[in-house]
Specification:
This protein has 8 helices and 11 strands. It is an alpha/beta fold and 233 residues long. It folds into 2 domains: 117 residues, Response regulator (Rossmann fold); 102 residues, Arc Repressor Mutant, subunit A, CATH 1.10.10. The strands form 3 sheets. A 5-stranded parallel beta sheet has the order 2-1-3-4-5, sandwiched between helices. It has a 3-stranded antiparallel beta sheet with strand order 6-7-8, with no helix packed on it. Helix 5 packs antiparallel against helix 6. The chain starts with a strand and ends in a 5-residue tail after the last strand. The structure holds calcium ion.
């Protein structure tokens, strides 16, 4: 069975077009036209990815995204925004959406984004269940058990480090800004500055055995933030 996709969208035309295409591509597809009901389905369902419209009856997509993330639901969310609504797009990403697509969108573009998000989620799931042999000498990042091991040493991870690595995995090979990390991984705490992020990253690099000037895993993107390259099995 293909991945299971939930679409919360009140425009019937879009529901039908997207649904037909996703079913034809082998995905399972469920749809809901209402914000409140849609959030409940997203919360209780076993979907692999959520396509989330912003303007919805009942509850808008931004509020749904925020509510899902604050209750610890990490499944990929792709927001669908009206054309030109840049502020919606920015807010969506700040509230924890993984990606956005402006309407009207090209179906091939939507499919490509869905595939990319599912791949990243898979990489993150792998980090939660490595099943690798700690003694093999290879780097093991195990988010489920909360440690990094390199064959000789094992480093426990703090809750915040696990959250940070989880975010890195879900945005593997993509540039992640410090502001984005501040807003999603730390969640709008006024006490926290971008300096805190740099300190956490430095600590993670140490545990990963990353050298600051030539890192293998967490790369610095000057003036913006970081880019994470997961260890490849
Ligand atoms: Ca709508």
């Amino acid at each position: 069975m293909g991945a299971k996709i939930l679409m919360i969208e009140d425009e019937q035309g879009i529901q039908l077009t997207v649904g037909d295409r996703l079913l034809a591509e082998g995905y399972e597809f469920e749809t809901c036209p209402d914000g409140i009901a849609g959030e409940a389905i997203a919360r209780n369902g076993d979907h692999d990815l959520i396509l989330l419209d912003i303007m919805l009856p009942g509850k808008d997509g931004l509020a749904i995204c925020k509510a899902l993330r604050s209750s610890g639901i990490t499944k990929p969310i792709l927001m669908l925004t009206a054309r030109g609504q840049v502020s919606d797009r920015v807010n969506g990403l700040k509230l924890g959406a993984d990606d956005y697509l402006g309407k009207p969108f090209d179906m091939a573009e939507l499919l490509a984004r869905i595939e990319a998000l599912l791949r990243r989620a898979e990489a993150s799931a792998h980090a939660y269940d490595t099943g690798q042999d700690k003694a093999s000498g290879e780097l093991v990042i195990d988010l489920k058990r909360g440690y990094i091991a390199n064959g000789t040493e094992e480093f426990p991870l703090s809750a915040q480090e696990i959250k940070l690595l989880d975010y890195f995995y879900r945005h593997a090979d993509a540039i992640v800004s410090r502001e984005e990390l501040l807003n999603t991984v730390w969640g709008y705490d006024p006490e926290i500055t971008t300096r805190t992020i740099d300190v956490h990253v430095a600590r993670l690099r140490q545990k990963l055995g990353d050298v600051k000037d030539v890192p293998k895993y967490i790369h610095t993107v000057r003036g913006i933030g970081y880019k994470f390259t997961p260890p490849r099995a």
